[in-house]
Amino acid sequence: MPDFIWQALLGGLGVALVAGPLGCFVVxxxxxxxxxxxxxxxxxxxxxxxxxxxxxxxxxxxVCLTAGLLLVGLQRQRHLASDTLLGIIAHTALxxxxxxxxxxxxxxxxxxxxxxxxxxxxxxxxLLTIALGDMLVLMVLAVSWRGLLAATVHEDLARVEGVPxxxxxxxxVMLLALVVAVAMKVVGMxxxxxLLIIPAATARRxxxxxxxxxxxxxxxxxxxxxxxxxxxLRWNTPAGPSIVVAAAALFVIVFxxxxxxxxxxxxxxx
Length: 270
Fold this sequence. Notes:
- This protein is an all-alpha fold.
- It has a domain of 188 residues: ABC transporter involved in vitamin B12 uptake, BtuC (Orthogonal Bundle), CATH 1.10.3470.10.
- It has eleven helices and no strands.
- Belongs to the ABC-3 integral membrane protein family.
- It comes from Acidihalobacter aeolianus.
- It is found in: Cell inner membrane; Cell membrane.
- It is a multi-pass membrane protein.
- This is High-affinity zinc uptake system membrane protein ZnuB.
């Protein structure tokens, strides 16, 4: 196969490796809309990156972190519900990004590539960024796994037991922002949340423990990347959306399989 196919495959698998475990926490905490908010904010990061002449990933990471921290701070007020705040932040950031781009008349960018990804354009520098991001996210997850899990099951009880829930929530927001910045090249800002949620939801059906679910989510994400990428090459369809369609197809197949009587992940209990 051509080199660009191998690079796209490695990049997609690298993103799936961290999106799966992190997506499990998104599913357990019922924060799907939070992931959408961060991904919508990414366009403003792209616009500010062009405007300020800095690396786009730095701009995306900075804006996503700002949006996440802003939400964490605003959630402490009781006047507006969290989903309302998420909607305000998500659509405001997306619209600000579009307006900022409009003020750059000499700028010519592939907006569709940023919205839906351009995995076939992944280069060696992108692979290095994904690899470094993977190592950072996985190391932080390994260190904070038990605390994040305890805060996910019952935050108040975790605080009583001495778990620094506030700090771990900030860590979780930072990890999500980093994954959004890294994954945008693969599936685009509008589809990142799907890569976080669908593999995790697929793994949830048969997972025996949180750790098993995280590993299975990464595996299902990898299968979706492989299937979507080769389906895109076979039928000449957009690569990013094809990956999401492959992930959805895996979810449907798993959902239709007869369910064995095994314990679900403890934090996944309804």
